[in-house]
Input
Amino acid sequence: MAMREEFRAVELDEPPIGGLVEGALAKGRRMRTRRRLTVGGAGLAVLVAAGLGTGVVVSNAGGPQPTAVVAAAPAASPTAANPAAGPSGAVPGKRVKGTPAGLLHLLVQNLPAGKTSNYAGFVEYGDVTVQTYLDRGQGPGMIRLNVMTRKASDFKGTWIPLGNGVEYMVKKVPSNCVQHTIVWVHHADDTLLQFNLANCLAWNGHTNKTSPQVLTVQEAAEVGADPRWGVTIDPELNEQGAAAYPHLPAELGK
Output
């Protein structure tokens, strides 16, 4: 997705799906800097012009080789997610750069009750991307989240207020199962979260297996409303994340 000059192209090596395939890539996740939004995923490039004022592109260009998505280390074993909690009161004054593990920990803290698994996360150009599966009793579904800083004025469309300076916007992308529903949540300090709510799982070497979408739009918006979100976070979250996910894979996919 491209938003003014601060966005860049990020192309991830996973197999093409659907009818909007941008093109196969060589082995490896190849990052190219042309200012488009990172969204780790599988399969295709989708123009989300209805969502963003400058024709934001959600880039998920695919290739025939799934080998780019290799876990850097074994994923943490599945755990039970805590019941969803509302935004905490005061946000601690001291903040540090959020790590993938710290932001993943915050995401899992805020999810509805269920079993989480298939964790991953990485940092690219200051933006953080994390992944988890969530099983609420109907089978696992995939959630990918990008945490960044962007201005609400870069978007066209209607922001829906949630209160306390938080607002959200939704985009449906039926042709892209990895980003079947996109929910953007914007905070008053220009923290922007992009929830990619999939109705398939990550590429397994053969297919993107169909799965339930495990969060509703409203649930994703409420998760994103927690005032602790940001590219900088409470250092305690980083510490807790490091303890919970000491070997977090740096690649999305398997």
Summary: The helical segments are 100-110, 217-224, 235-244. The first helix runs from residue 100 to 110.
